[in-house]
Amino acid sequence: MSSKPDRMYDIPHLDNTGSNYHDWKYRVSTVLYLRGLSGIAEGTEQCPPQTALDPKDQPTTTAAYEKWQARNYQTKAEITMNLSQELLSAVILYTLALEVWNYLEERYERKGQYMMVQLPGDIFRCTFLDTVPMENQLSQICRKVHRLKVLGHNLKDSLIAAVMVMSLPDSYASLRQHLYMKKKSKLITEFVTKQILIEENSRGDASHVALMGDGKGKKCYC
Fold it and tell me: What helix, strand, coil percent values describe the chain, rounded to 5?
């Protein structure tokens, strides 16, 4: 690349749990690309030899070696400056940016594959409780759906809405039946979320509030 940006980028630190790993990797990879350092991190730009076969070539060989070393340290800095303290302690003895990059990939890519299997099960086995605010329980589903999306697996909005309906406790049986009878086009998370919250709020009212119809209002961002 002909020009490399010198500006600093405000990238949230990679959390030790890896919960933000894929977002973090995308941001750091983009910065490394803009600075022409991707090859160092990924190992495609390898370190040249430190010693020349012909002594006459030693100055050129030394210059190439030192230039690569400087780029390696710059790449390592771009990566490690955006790590939590715990992760920094785990990689502090590595001398190559490639070693740091590979360590993080091995640690969190594998975890991501595990989460791809675990999250759908958590979503589909979800059961709501009367003793916990519905908004909290709906948001919990949405957070899991979003995390699955970050991992590259999208669930249809209508399927998420159906899970919300199926997760309702028995005390919400009448609402569940009401939602099951709705047209398929109406069964979306925004509509279902509003109906559940209306039903929950109405329970503190002596006169039961009628179910509302257009679903515009509070959203569940899945």
Answer: 60, 0, 40
C-alpha neighbours within 13 Å on the C-beta side of residue 140: 16
Give this prediction's pTM. Answer: 0.52
**Domain extent for 195:** 126-202
Q: What is the pLDDT of residues 50-103, one digit of tens each?
A: 998 888 999 999 999 999 999 999 999 999 999 999 899 999 999 999 999 999
| 3-class SS of residue 14 | strand
| CA distance between the termini of the chain | 38
Which of 167, 178, 177, 173 lies closest to 211, judged by CA?
A: 178
Q: Are residues 96 and 147 in the same domain?
A: no
Residue 141 and residue 99 in one domain? no
Q: How far apart are CA 74 and CA 125, in angstroms?
A: 46
Q: Domains in the chain: how many in total?
A: 2
Q: Which residue has the tokens 């398929």?
A: 184
Q: Are residues 78 and 36 in the same domain?
A: yes
Kindly report which listed range (29-33, 68-72, 83-87, 183-187) carries the lowest average pLDDT score.
183-187
My answer on whether 26 and 104 are in the same domain is yes
Inside any domain, residue 4: no
